[in-house]
Design goal:
Length: 54
């Protein structure tokens, strides 16, 4: 698994404040960062991270 790219995805989610528009929503919010590969045989999702906020 390419953890560096997953970490970069989560960093981008935080830096760009993608969840900011949902800050007043009382429901539990999950941030999901993923890494995708287009190289065989690992084509598709190769790593992910989930962070619970709220």
């Amino acid at each position: 698994m390419e953890t560096q790219n997953v970490e970069e995805a989560m960093q981008q989610i935080h830096e760009r404040d993608y969840a900011g528009r949902y800050s007043l929503d009382p429901r539990t919010l999950y941030l999901i960062g993923g890494n995708f590969s287009d190289k065989a045989p690992d084509r598709g999702l190769t790593g992910y991270d989930i962070e619970k906020i709220n």
